[in-house]
User: Fold these one by one.
Assistant:
Number 1:
Amino acid sequence: MDSGDTAFMLIATALVMLMTPGLALFYGGLVRSKNVLATMMQSFICLGVVSILWVVFGYSLAFGPDKGGVIGGLDWAFLRSVGTEPGPYAATIPHLVFSAFQLMFAIITPALITGAFAERMKFSGFLLFTVLWTTLVYFPVCHWVWGGGWLGKLGALDFAGGTVIHINSGVAALASALVVGKRRGYRKEPFQPHSLPLTVLGAGLLWFGWFGFNAGSALTAGAVAGVAFFNTQVATGAAAVAWITAEWIKIGKPTTLGAASGAVAGLVAVTPAAGFVGPVPALVIGLLAGFFCYGAVLAKEKLGYDDALDVVGIHGVGGLWGALATGLFASTVYNAAGADGLFYGNPKQLLIQAVGALAAIVYSFVLSWVLLKVTGAVTGLRVPEEDEVQGLDQTQHSETGYVL
Amino acid sequence: MVKIEAIIKPFVLEQVKEALNSIGVTGLTVTEVRGFGRQKGHREIYRGAEYLVEFQPKIKVETVVPEERTDVVVETILKAARTGKIGDGKIFVYPLTQVIRIRTGERGETAI
């Protein structure tokens, strides 16, 4: 046990927790004012719902003793044998601290999906889907990569969750947009973001919290945490600049929303690579993430699915790019426990990364589709049309975001 | 008595207020409004989505004056609010039947 590592991980955990309210602000500002509370609620309440799942069976399914490479068993249900001594995943911190850190990841992942079905999803449907999805998609995929499952054993590198969190949620978002359907008035009415200052503030909090997410994923306060910290900063800054540059060329104006969106795209893309690559590759990963994700967001307009807040374009595409880029740029110079990528003489790593990404894409898409159908049959997915027009704040929560 | 209502560009509000002050208009009511005339809307772009925002932000200025002052007030607003470009707005003049000062109960022109 190491008090320095424990202190570092406690702070990192709190930083990751802050990302979820940050996401609530990021999303909340992007919707119309009649839906601001309902949208923020769908992120915020994950802090509660997933915490309960985690204690009862979630931590055990994700990290408990491996069953066939696909899932942890129920041996650690109710956190049995998860206590103050270090567990098998981090030798220098209490097992409970590791579990708390991982809990924050499990919380933000379903919250990310909510951007896809924003402004039309029933609260009851959202809750049921979140419980089902977290249990049957997040916990298994998390186990595959980090909990001793088959992808981790295969050698897939995912430093802080490019596949587990971002590809996973981005693909679930695509299924959500397709199954839940378009918002009423899509492409007929202007859906202007009601408060971009909230969105920029949210992006700032995400950026801040992401230092805990990426540096904390080193699990010790050492050199790898420092590398991940540095890479997080440069990739994010580069992606913000790349996005607004692309916009400037394409539409003639750099936008504030573009800067905020680009920053998030950079954070997403550097996540799997953060502790495995050097700072110059991180800069390249960020720059290209800004271009790729902006392109993906433009492509959505052509393809015509209503992923309301661009979860697919930013998290799905950014996560995929990050996973593959890790297979290109990873270098054991920066992390001896990692691997070398294609550019350092190991083309096989790129293949492994692609297999990991593909597995997550297929599994998450199929399961998300089924779980949305199940949810639709049990609680329904969408609010009635009249409620959608009136807004979710009043019809789902009997509240108003702004009172004059 | 007449009520004069002017829809103006937001950035000329300060000079309209100064000009009306200088000719002795004692009270103004100002509202932020949105609407369109010949100017039509403007484009806004959020990520990939481009929207025509039809309603332009404008300021509505309302004041009440004795009928014989109508022309001088209208001229003053015209001079202060005109940029010569599309979207300068409009002035409406209405006849007014009664004005009552709530504090004292005075009626008519003394209540303006």
Number 2:
Amino acid sequence: MNAIIFSVIGGVVMMFTGIITQQKKAIRNVAIIALIILLLANIFDTYGILSIHIGTHGMLNFQKFGLYFNTLAYAATLLFILISGADVTQIGEGKHAAEFFALIFFSLSGIAIITSYNSLLLLFLGIEIMSIPLYILTGGDKRNLKSNEASLKYFLMGSFSTGILLMGIALMYGAHGGFEISAMKPSAVSNEYGILDPLGLVLVFIAIAFKVSAAPFHFWTPDVYDGSPSVFTSFMATIIKAAGFIAFIRLFDNKYVELGLSWRIILPLVIIATLLVGNITAIFQQSVKRMMAYSSIAQAGFMLFAVFAENDMAKEGILIYTVAYSVATIGIFAVLEKMEDISLAGYNGLAKKHPLLAATNTIFLLSLTGIPLTAGFFAKYYMLLSVIKYGGSTVTWLVIVAVIFAAISAYYYFRVIQAMYFKTGNPEVRSYNKGFCFMLVILAAITILIGIFPTIILNWFYF
Amino acid sequence: MSQLVYLVPLLPLAGFLINGLLRKSLSKQAVSIIGCGVILIAFLISLGLFFQVKANGPIIQTYFNFIDIKGLNIPFSFQVDALSVLFMLIITGVGFLIHVYSTSYMHEESTPHFARYFSFLNLFVFSMLLLVMGGNYLILFLGWEGVGLCSYLLIGYWFKNTDYNYAAKKAFIMNRIGDVGFLLGIFWLVAKLGTLTYGNVFAAAGNLSAVDVTGITILLFIGATGKSAQIPLYTWLPDAMAGPTPVSALIHAATMVTAGVYMIARSNILYSMSAVTENVIAIIGIATVLLAATIAIKQNDIKKVLAYSTVSQLGYMFLGLGVGAYNGAVFHVMTHAFFKALLFLGAGSVIHAMGNEQDIRKMGGLRKYMPVTHITFLLGCLAISGIPPFSGFFSKDEILAAAYAKNPVLWVLGVAGAALTAFYMFRLYATTFLGSFRGTHDQEHHLHESPAAITLPLIALAILSVIGGWIGIPAVMIPDANAFHHFLQPVITTEAIAEMPHATEWLLMVVSVAVAVIAILIALGKFTKRPELNEPQGLGGFLAHKWYIDELYDAVIVNPLNALAGFFKNIIEKSGIDGIVNGVGRFILYSSRQVRLVQSGQVGSYILFMVLAIIVLVLIWINDGYIYTYLSKIF
């Protein structure tokens, strides 16, 4: 429970920091310290060194997997703030830095709930606590119409999905007479209410699919990611998205066995649709930011394999995928944040003028493509392997489809590399300092380290 | 001693790595010491192994599992027995002499290139040792490919000359063609027997059907025709003379080209099971003898004559293999290694003295200027011509006797080849060393005997060429004196040559020696005073142009292949494959443009799509049973 408590405290502290000081650097440093404390508190909790517990009547159920995911998510957030924190403080007129950090902390507390919920009510609360700060962050650039539009769209469609989620929860409550997922047994539902259970479940599924931007519930993603300030896009596309998958895994971990055939039809459909929309549409984008929005949809398609397979390998895989994908995406957005022109042409000739930015950016793009020796390779490898372990030869075709789409994804990722290295141009880049370069190198090093020793992440997990 | 087996190939490998990697920093002296030293040590170890094998029988060392999959286990192992230790001695012994010779011959090269030369040479020795020491066909194949690579690298050693590069490529490609056959043979073995280890293969050979045996042996033999320059794949060897002369001596005369003989002698159990293959080998062998010998008569490049002579002598070895005289063939490999290395090195000495002139029409009378080279070369010529008691006589006689036992026609053709051999060798000798000097004044001024690093290997090889045959004296001369047969007994178990009356055997010997002597006398008489200086006409021209075989291959194989490649490149590749590939790309780009339009920016339409999707998913979810049954009917 440390994670929930300390993230909320962190949020409150940040709000008060905003009253005390307007110094951006100070605010950022407070945020970093608060985040480190949160991270440590969660690690202590994981290993049982120091954990605070408040009775929740079984509505929360802390398991190692969820806590460990918290650690990874908070570590990723720490990297995110270290590399992009200065940019966060610049959003809008730079007057609301503390509030932005506070919102990020509140969102993190939502994640902590999502990773440990046992009651569907808490799932609902977690998703809302995680999402509402994002609606505000998306509109963080107050004077920018695009940012406002994105915020409103996000809110409208988010409300829509919330409604569906509530509907689903209500139906499941009707079938089972309770909210605790660990107590739900489809076989115990009397025939009279038989239809309520699957119907409720499919609605909950759809609501979470919306959050992880799985097709065909992805429509909000490109518009919102494109419109919101880049740093917040980076946060939303990585840490928040990964949390959605944990919600999935917790939900279906218990019910999965009895879901039966529908699973084998619907999930492959959703996966293929997601891969198709993400990859195919990304190809045509001229803006790197928008391309990354579609890329995040495509990557979600791959992460859905973990939900489909639902075995231990899938759980390990989703952890590796979270780290690999988050680190690479945070890095790409950090570079993007420094670009004056975020269209593909704006990257032309970057390698000549800023070799470090180009080189690290290349490593991140390679990782997203899934090239060996980068983390992304093992991320995809674990996903595909978990599905094969689950379905054997009956899912070979699905794996082949996924690999084909991974090949297609190389086209749009490599276009950026091509622009940076093989085209001439005069890219305009905002000033950046040594610390920024250092963090980029750290991110690239993590990407390659995991690409060589993917199990270092998992070794901690089993510690 | 047997613990040191792995050092024999490992030392040359180390020499290759040191000389290759440090070629920019080592001095020529250091390179020479390392390059020659590793071979010398390898030779000494081989010598020790030789005595151990002689006393205690074969040594088989297994180091690790090279390939270990279900149904196939190939260990990385070395098999040092009578046959392989003999080859090891030839490779490291003759190889050492040639390395020493090279330190002087290649001295004008700049230091990095000098080191490159020695590193390649060491790599070659390593590969060749792998080839003969391997305990199964796969290791043999590794060495087989390795020597092919080194041959390519060394033929193209002077890579700035386009013709030399072309010759290197030709050698490599011709060998690759043979290798296809070789590989198929190995695959066939794996498919039928599931093992490649010599002992297991030969033990299980009885289970093979007649078709299998013939197929496997023919395919392996095709590999041998490439590596050992037999009809129809021999044309690369004369061109391979583009490499430095010591390379020709080591690779293209003494060792690599005998790999095919080694392989067949090693597999004698398989080969003796198929009469068809034996006949094919005998016929190809004798045809190669005669074809190459006739060409050699009209060549004017000193190395080309020796090259065709090598092809011809290799033909004798295959003739021996074909008639079942495995001992004789291996014996001839050994004596040939001595006298042909000697002849090449002597030719190198001449070329060196003449300032890189290779045309014998511009030589003559070198006897006076280069006494050591002259004497040793003459001994080499006598040995190759089969004059007793020089080494070539004993080995060639053994093969010819076995050929007579098989079919007298083969013997007649073989003796004719021997006569041609004696004739062209002494034509070469007379034109080069006798008569008067025909080169320029400058060249005459520079003529000199070569330094000790060149003459000492010549002398050593000359001694071996003279006495090397005495270990294989036929029983008809001195009973039980044939140490060679005795030594190879454990490996060559299938030699079956019909016994002949002693009188017949003596008669055959006398006839072949007499024919050779007559040929020598004719050649000396004809070319000492009046060497052939003009371009030959008529039949001579036909021979000088090598029967127009290269032109024939160009017309029949190379040009049609080029045309076919052009067709594939311009038609199939450009319009067909590229069309499909680019079409796929264009289709995806097109779909991207269309799919993008769904993302209209209108929240209303988004929600409409989502509601439709929800309805579809709910319907599927509820009717999953029907859908699943339906789907499973389709797939």
